[in-house]
Write a structure and sequence with these properties.
Length: 388
């Protein structure tokens, strides 16, 4: 009996510490005062939905993507430069191997704070390889904190939660079995209300620990970020002028190859592999992939949360894909499959498939370039303004 009392007393003290320290961190670090945080590309931010939520307001679009979010980030054409101070803001979330399922969880965790009800998902054809997202890569990006936030969202049906949880466990069982075991406990507790007393206690305490750890890590990581500014006094962006500037800049960066990729990338990754890459993808396909099922889950979450998202379909680099022999018919079939899915779901589509042969839409063989960022940013601003 004494051991039980001692344990309960320790638990009460621990919970009190969690509440007090967490309050101090939250009140000492308010990201709404730091609009520049929207454009920080750091997994500490991506894994903390509460940190993301604290920056979301009626003028902010939650922009979800993959490695292209960091492409050309130091140029004036990237949103972190282009959108600073503008009325419409973008909360950028994503890095390499962040794909549909990861963003499904992110959206579900963030939705209660998303007062703008505006979400843009940038999808890349390379997500849709036959195997879909790599289990090890998914596990390395997976956030338990965000997953718990998703499980706690009472706007989602148990049926949809079950489908998402089944897919998450399928990947974690391969990518991180130890973590999968803990995730099963969360699911039993939050979705099915079947966890035993010990598991309930563990899940509750551990989720508090994750919250404390996440907030402390965020404070430690971003405490020196310069606030940035927001103003309504800036003139609207001149998209046509920006496009001209982007093409000029792209032309200056792509001088040593016929594929219109920037020189450093060509020298490092392509030049010495040209012979082996020639017609190496004659059987390539993006039309049969489990990623389509994951994308369907994202669209279902949008429906149940009553969010009309903007899905942005990025093309491949046409001149390079012709060189490696990747069938044009399959590429076109992939674009059409995306169109059909998005339109049937009632969401909006920014379809850039006709930019395959635009010289500077992509900066390398897969990532957004200078012209691409201007056009994608314009599509997001138009989406935000039309849904105000």
């Amino acid at each position: 009996m004494k051991k039980v009392i001692s344990f309960l007393l320790s638990l009460v003290i621990f919970c009190g510490m969690v509440v007090s320290v967490d309050w101090g961190l939250k009140n000492g670090f308010r990201s709404k005062d730091m609009p520049a945080l929207n454009y920080e590309l750091n997994k500490v931010k991506f894994r903390n939905y509460e940190l993301i939520n604290s920056s979301l307001d009626e003028n902010t679009v939650l922009v979800l993507g993959s490695s292209e979010l960091s492409s050309q980030k130091d140029t004036k054409f990237h949103p972190r430069q282009l959108m600073q101070g503008q009325q419409t803001q973008m909360m950028l979330v994503g890095a390499g191997y962040y794909q549909s399922l990861e963003h499904t969880i992110e959206l579900a965790a963030c939705s209660n704070a998303l007062s703008s009800r505006k979400v843009a998902l940038i999808i890349s054809p390379q997500w849709f390889v036959k195997g879909g997202v790599d289990p090890a890569a998914f596990a390395s990006n997976f956030s338990e904190k965000n997953f718990i936030g998703f499980l706690k969202n009472d706007q989602l049906s148990k049926e949809l939660k079950t489908k998402i949880c089944t897919r998450v466990l399928e990947l974690l069982d391969q990518g991180n079995p130890a973590q999968a075991s803990r995730i099963r406990m969360y699911i039993e507790y939050y979705v099915y209300d079947k966890a035993n007393l010990f598991d309930r206690l563990y899940a509750s305490v551990y989720s508090d620990y994750l919250e404390l750890k996440g907030n402390y890590t965020a404070w430690k990581t971003f405490r020196n970020v310069q606030p940035g500014t927001l103003t309504d006094s800036l003139k609207p962006l001149d998209w046509n002028t920006l496009l001209d500037e982007a093409r000029t800049y792209g032309r200056e960066q792509c001088t040593n190859n016929p594929f219109f990729v920037y020189d450093e990338y060509y020298d490092r990754y392509m030049k010495d592999a040209l012979e082996s890459k020639k017609n190496s993808q004659l059987d390539g396909s993006y039309t049969i992939s489990s990623e389509f099922d994951d994308l369907s889950l994202f669209l279902e979450v949008c429906r149940e949360l009553d969010i009309t998202s903007l899905v942005i379909s990025i093309p491949v680099k046409g001149v390079w894909y012709d060189y490696i022999g990747f069938p044009k018919t399959d590429r076109d079939a992939y674009y059409q499959k995306i169109r059909t899915m998005v339109e049937a779901s009632g969401n909006q589509l920014a379809d850039f498939s006709d930019e395959e042969y635009s010289d500077y839409f992509l900066s390398d063989i897969m990532h957004l370039g200078w012209e691409g960022w201007v056009k994608v940013s314009e599509s997001i601003v138009e989406y935000a303004e039309s849904n105000s």
